[in-house]
Amino acid sequence: MTKIAFIFPGQGSQVVGMGQEFIENSAGSKVFYDNADKVLGFELSKIMLEGPAEELTLTYHAQPALLTTGVMVAEKLRAAGITPDYAAGHSLGEYGALVIAGVLSFEDAVAIVHKRGLYMNEAVPAGKGAMAAILGMELEALRNLTDQVTASGDEVQVANVNCPGQIVISGTKDGVEKASVAAKEAGAKRAIPLVVSGPFHSELMRSSSEQLRIALETITLSVPQIPVIGNVKANELQDVSAIEHELVEQVYSAVQWEASVREMIAQGVDVFIECGPGKVLSGLVKKIDRSVTTYCVYDEASLESVVEASKEWAINA
To answer: 223-270, pLDDT tens digit by residue?
Structure first.
């Protein structure tokens, strides 16, 4: 029997025009964009649809933008009769998974991730932090290397364990640069600087996590209606207390994406549907296990392809 996971991308997947075809063709889809504008008190939808890209990339815009599009797409899938057995998201994407699982309302999620973006932006001034993708290096070797650089006075740590051969590091600008050079000298294939506005998932974000904890106390969280696999420990988040702890710790902890995907596969998930712009997570899932099936839904054509495929799942169930 086919088991489906909805997965939600994090920062970096945003693109000007995201979700445009859906909202032009469906009043129900446009409601999500309108509600996000009302919650935030400014026209996020205009930035999403018209740009400029520099404004959309700002973390306090990118986070609610990706959440809005991801949840809208997930609801389009549900309306078409495709329901998830599991949900997960990469970093910011975890909030989309929690909305779909009924843990928090869409409106509360939009407000919280906007605040999360503001807190993260305030924690480290622009230009002071950095992130880089290290390709072709083992996790423990890279972790030892980042520990050495940090001990020398330049903070840097493992931030995302994405898939075999792809690990992201995060920290101060100097720390990331030094660790990148050292990684290549130690045999890494490549070290690719990422275009981000801060050192996400590093200890430098810890101050923002405390602000987030306080903000989370103002909203109501509910027990998940479907299993959600968390970023920090790649385990199922089963109660409200665990979810609160996860969301706070997640800000400065590494995203265990590879382990999260493996956990869902171990639970029988064989179809992963990426909800929102881009194909980043689908690509990572395939690198983790090529035997599973992946889809990306970002426009009418990609939605229709999944709907058609789902007819076969029903036949084979």
So the answer is: 999 999 999 999 999 999 999 999 999 999 999 999 999 999 999 999
156 compared with 1, residue with greater pLDDT: 156
CA-based nearest residue to 237, from 112, 95, 119, 105: 95
Checking DSSP bridges between strand 190-193 and strand 166-172, what pairing results, if any?
A: unpaired
pLDDT digits over 265-280, tens only? 999 999 999 999 989 9
Q: What is the DSSP string of 251-312?
A: TTS-B-HHHHHHHHHHTT--EEEEESS-SHHHHHHHHH-TTSEEEEE-SHHHHHHHHHHHHH
Lowest mean pLDDT among 126-130, 201-205, 308-312: 126-130
Q: Crossing angle, helix 59-79 and helix 106-123, to 10 degrees?
A: 150
Please give the positions annotated as active site.
91, 201
* SS3 letters across 197-242: CCCCCCHHHHHHHHHHHHHHCCCCCCCCCCCEECCCCCCECCCHHH
Q: How far apart (Å, rounded) are the C-alpha atoms in residues 176 and 164?
A: 20
Q: How many CB atoms lie within 10 A of CB 55?
A: 16
C-alpha 261/C-alpha 88 separation (Å) is: 9
**b/e per residue 156-187 (b: at least 16 CB within 10 A):** bbbbbbbbeebbbbbbbbbbbbbbbebbbeee
- Tell me the pTM: 0.96
Half-sphere exposure of 309 (CA within 13 A, CB side): 18
